[in-house]
Write a structure and sequence with these properties.
The protein folds into two domains: 180 residues, Alpha-Beta Plaits (2-Layer Sandwich); 92 residues, Chromosomal Replication Initiator Protein Dnaa, Chain: A, CATH 1.10.1750.10. The chain is 49% helix and 9% strand. By secondary structure, the protein is an alpha+beta fold. It starts with 11 loop residues before the first strand and ends in a 9-residue tail after the last helix. α1 runs antiparallel to α2 and α10 packs antiparallel against α12.
């Protein structure tokens, strides 16, 4: 299974989630909740992380964090580890509290952070636990909305600054913004790229430059190259160019057409998908995918006419 995010750099912004092991509760009462918030505050201060929003649910949490020092993994390891130790001592248990490692989505701040701040505090409403986020005491909503004092470890200046220069007006505008989300919930995850990136093409290209070519080899290829085109877009281009359908491209056949071979090549070399994902989509074995991609690569090197046809596809760049 692909490893969780390891990409970090100064100033990166993340949406972080961690769930209870076997989806079990990570808090049992308000004493546990208070302990979690205290541990979160200590983590923010000790690792100098900026926390823009947070919510604690019964079996998971959401955080929106900015890392000036590129230390997300160490910060979350501290939060989960220290809290687990306290929880286990209090409830006379042993073992893991959280399900594996945390999950993090790398976020383009100027484009998506505002919507995610709303999404995070609306989690209890979406779960039908309350009708308004102010009725859930375990989130950043009240502090950001001016309905409770903001603790020093919560960063509210950037978020409120998106609404108005004066604090009272910003509080009121923020409350209206969140309430609009109750009526029409956000769907930010539809825009996630490469499983762990949420941002524009310009942002993805910038992130790609941040990733060292010597990065952890276990990071999946799709994580290392977030700006690669989507497979569905590539398939549409190939289907139009060859006057066929996407269904025909992905349907197994004993004698694959040139269009199907080009689609396989594009899935591997342009979209950067793993062999397993391509095999599932095209109804082939791992070795079948590898063999056909290799065959087309050799043909491209020997057949200028084939190469010219493929290079006409708007988003397919031949790279053998």
């Amino acid at each position: 299974m692909a490893r969780p995010l390891r990409i970090s750099y100064p100033g990166a912004v993340y949406h972080v989630t961690a769930r209870g092991n076997e989806r079990k509760a990570i808090v049992r009462d308000d004493q546990d909740r208070q302990r979690f918030v205290q541990t979160l505050a200590t983590m923010v201060e000790q690792y100098q992380v900026l926390c823009h929003a947070w919510v604690l649910m019964s079996n998971h949490y959401h955080l929106l964090l900015e890392t000036p020092q590129a230390n997300l993994s160490r910060a979350i390891r501290h939060l989960n580890g220290i809290y687990t130790q306290a929880f286990n001592r209090r409830h006379h248990r042993v073992g893991h509290l959280f399900q594996g490692r945390f999950k993090a989505i790398l976020v383009e701040k100027d484009t998506y952070l505002l919507a995610l701040c709303r999404y995070v505090v609306l989690n209890p409403v979406g779960a039908q636990l309350v009708t308004h986020p102010r009725r859930w005491g375990w989130s950043s909503y009240r502090a950001t909305a001016g309905e409770a004092p903001a603790p020093p470890w919560l960063t509210v200046d950037w978020l409120l600054g998106q609404f108005a220069p004066r604090r009272a007006a910003a509080h009121a505008a923020y409350r209206r913004f969140v309430e609009a989300g109750i009526r029409q919930p956000d769907q930010p995850w539809a825009q996630v790229r490469g499983q762990i990136y949420l941002g524009s093409e310009k942002f993805l290209t910038g992130v790609h430059r941040q990733i060292s070519r010597h990065a952890d080899p276990e990071i999946p290829r799709v994580h290392k190259a977030p700006a690669r085109p989507r497979l569905d877009d590539l398939l549409d281009q190939v289907a139009r160019a060859y006057t066929t359908t996407v269904r025909a491209l992905v349907s197994p056949t004993r004698r694959p057409s040139e269009a199907r071979q080009v689609a396989l090549f594009a899935a591997r070399r342009m979209a950067g998908l793993e062999l397993k994902a391509i095999a599932v989509r095209f109804g082939l074995s791992y070795t079948g995918v590898s063999r056909r991609v290799g065959e087309l690569a050799r043909r491209l090197a020997e057949d200028p006419a084939l190469r010219a046809r493929i290079e006409k596809l708007p988003i397919v760049k031949v790279k053998t």
